[in-house]
């Protein structure tokens, strides 16, 4: 935490700062850059650039840095470095009022109110010679505030008209006045930390050191939160993948049934009343009942069992590969989370941040993206793939999933895809705001649309795609209609499909 001065320490510090800055002119008022912090600046901190000849007739320049952050107010004078304006901070109304009234003004005097943590800087009014402009810094940790006031030379004790306040964040139109408190109830016996206020630079360096520690801690916490969110996602994915593998392992022995039917084709086994075919297993010399689809012929049923066997094998391989990759990533992140960073070890922190960032999936959005309504992150919990261009592709595998994906988890300008003229999967490609879908991503989506519509053996297939806003649900049905569509003719590329399956998220 930044060391907060008591009223005695503050008064001693002002005694050292006052002769250095009296007589100087204000060049600018800025929000200083703080590159160590995640947002690159501190809300509630300002710096006033001063230059000219001071009261001792010495050429001087430097920055008056002050903060009204809750719990950490401070005031410091720095002549050691050139502070830069933060490019990420937006100028508040208070900033603009400060600049308007103070730019070009000369510092007349600086006072620390008796027995109060309040400092007043008086400047010469740029337009009225009988008026003074004052910057009041209330450095009480529980309620810090910066005020811009004005007073006439005759008006000393009746209160000063408040022009603007850091708390109000806008000009104050009412006749609010600031009456200087008397400080009568303040305790007399307070400790003085001489090492802090032996010079203005000593206190400034102490502030800078504590701010670096605060920035380091904030960034460690941010990286830790990112890793923890990622770990939570990975553990859910690992659980789902293991369930999927268990379900595949519990499926019927499709190849065994297909081989038996093929070996008994010459007997043409018929269906019984329960739609089973009785076939003979020549290896065990036993009869086996095989459940069959009454709509399929014996040859078609055999082929169907072989297709089911191939599909089961693919799902098993996918699940095992996904479990292995997810487990490896989980172990890596767990190890990364367990490491203890030494304070001020910026190299280790940067490595941790880069690792956390590189392991964040493409469909998760950064904080800046979340501020845009159009770039909110996916809430879809079904099948998600990542295209070659790092765009998320969501797939509905059932009628219910299709409707949920299309009408609950998709935005108007996302790309919606479907096999033309056949029932099948809905595929949605999330398109970032202001971007368009690359061709390779469209081909990835089309490949998934065919595969999850059970069309891996269809050969060249026509895929329609359009913006989701042109897709409408047909009343009283689970079907949709769409307009403004374009088409692709695609044949499944095994290598493309394999790449997509490696990056499947669920």
Description:
- The chain has 506 residues and is α+β, with helices and mostly antiparallel strands.
- It has three domains: 7-198, ibrinogen binding protein from staphylococcus aureus domain (ibrinogen binding protein from staphylococcus aureus fold), CATH 2.30.310.10; 231-356; 362-502, no CATH class.
- The protein is 35% helix and 22% strand.
- The chain contains eleven helices and 20 strands.
- The chain has helices spanning 7-21, 93-102, 194-197, 200-249, 254-263, 298-338, 346-358, 367-370, 399-408, 439-451, 494-502; strands at residues 25-30, 45-53, 59-67, 74-78, 107-112, 118-124, 131-138, 145-152, 160-165, 177-178, 276-281, 286-291, 383-386, 392-395, 415-419, 427-429, 461-467, 471-473, 480-482, 486-490.
- The strands form five sheets. The protein has a six-stranded antiparallel sheet.
- Strand 8 (145-152) and strand 9 form a beta hairpin.
- It starts with 6 loop residues before the first helix and ends with a helix.
How is the topology of this model organized?
Layout: H1 7-21, E1 25-30, E2 45-53, E3 59-67, E4 74-78, H2 93-102, E5 107-112, E6 118-124, E7 131-138, E8 145-152, E9 160-165, E10 177-178, H3 194-197, H4 200-249, H5 254-263, E11 276-281, E12 286-291, H6 298-338, H7 346-358, H8 367-370, E13 383-386, E14 392-395, H9 399-408, E15 415-419, E16 427-429, H10 439-451, E17 461-467, E18 471-473, E19 480-482, E20 486-490, H11 494-502
Antiparallel strand pairs: 1-2, 2-3, 3-4, 5-6, 6-7, 7-8, 8-9, 9-10, 11-12, 13-14, 14-16, 15-16, 15-17, 17-20, 18-19
